[in-house]
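Blinded run. Sample ID left blank on purpose so nobody reads anything into the name before looking at the predicted structure. Input follows.
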Amino acid sequence: MKSDFWIDYTGTESKTDRLLALQQSRKTIADFVHIVTGLNIPVTISGANSYTDGKSVTISSDLKPEEFDVTIGLALHEGSHIKLTDFELLPKLMMNAREIDANYEEKFNPLLKDILNVVEDRRIDNFIYKGSPGFRGYYQALYNKYFRSDEVDNAIATNLYNQETIEHYMFHVINIANNNRNLKALKGLQEIWDILDLNNISRLKTTKEALKVSIDILNIMLKYVPKDKQEYDPNKNSDDLMGQGDGEGGEGASTEGSGEGTPMTAEQAKALGEALAKQREFINDNFEKRELTSEEASQLDALGEAGVQVKSIGSNEVKPGTVGRSIIPKVSAILVNKITPALAKSGTINGLDTYPSYEDEVANGKRRGNKLAHYLRARQEERTLKTTRQKSGRIDKRLISQLGYGEYNVFSNVETSISNRVHIHISIDASGSMGGSKFKNSITTAVSIATAASKIQGMQCVIDFRHQTNSKQPCVIIGYDSRKQKISEINNIAYINCNALTPEGLCYETIMDVIEKSNSGLDSYLINFSDGSPSFTLVTEKGKFNYSGITAEAHTKQQIDKIKAKGVKVLSYFIDEGYSNTPSREFVNMYGQDSVMIDTNNIQQVAKTVNKLLMK
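Blinded prediction complete.
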């Protein structure tokens, strides 16, 4: 499927995983709809199918992995309706039809509406199909589901619909884009094909022009259908077929107008009836609109507000030692772009408590940040150097009096230097081993750095937390991002918790594009807080993968090296509680020789190490 390129289907068994898949689908589909229409069309989730109300697109809440391509195609179809269809035309169908054909009769409104839906669908789908060829695969999946079934193909091939009735004409009109179409099955089908002119459908620029073609098609039907058979029941064929028999074991059924009376089993009749009903659903948007539960709806809203993403990572080759190699398998990872109280209380993201547990640590960090700002402010101060008694420059008024004494070097030069802007990305290990004072101190220190940065012009700060979901997926939660949030929102970090294990390198891979790269006007830094080596079991489509030991360390080093290659300088704090005086060998191997141990309660020591990093 085309959607394999942008979403990983692993881990969709639990309710939370299903909601995450829905949220990722909603975001991606909204992006796709925006790309092809150029409009910011809202995409919501509800019910068993997808549809539009003319203002927004709704996608199915029963979304299954095998239906993703169909759902995207349907969302694009509905989005193009919003862009191209005149929704005001249908309520005034009679008036608009009479403007085109003065002899039009109101009793044909239901039939004309169905014909117009077919023509309009071909018109708007051609707009996307021709204009955005990269999305054609989604349309092909869409039409394969609704219009290209063995039952319909067989009905065309066996002349099942060859009687001059309105229902039989509509069967052929609905399936006129089918490659197996039979234009000889009924009188006038060739005329309808010529008038529709699918190969030149782009000539129809408006819904009104599509209505004119629809009226021409209607008049051809009425020319060949006897007046006593011009009554129209859009559901007649599908309802009659589905009502024949109970499936296997039936004595068989013969459909009226089948030419030679070709017998069908009850099971075949039912399957064809269902296929025709599905086509009717599509052209009339008569989809079941079952609502999500209020709990699921609020959870999805919370995921959307927090910008939760599912990212496909892995498939990396790493070399743990001088010989051998290991392939990190492809896996889906969760990225939470910000913490909100609603997300925490929704219970959908492992790593967030439903109540704030670290309010004191955040408050303490904010107080310490006010003090830390004084230690770090010098880094961003504007510096000026004035040089006097120069042969050129600006006249120094204090030296003018010396001109009468033979002093001609009365000029001065002033040089001003301004430091680059600074981006500090703080990443905190939120595994179970960090619990207690280590995690509390890390939160306080990170908040103090972020608070100090908020008081210094040109300095921005991001804080994230690395851990895993209950479904054994790498997860990164961004607790604060000064580029997008006010400093007051840093209070939401109090909802964070630590448990389980941390797939270190995989988490860094997840946020690789979040960490700013250094450039001529920006200096970027990564500060890590963690207490050991990664240890984690990945659950993939091919089974479990043990992400630990030298393989995990090599992969983490690989990601840190990629971060450094972006010009990012790395400072890694090894968080310990007095058991050793230096970082472990594994820690240094992953993060480099600049790894340090500090007392996170010592504000001067924190300031010293951060200032040392900033002055590199």
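Unblinding after everyone has recorded impressions. Residues 250 and 270 are 11 Å apart (CA to CA).
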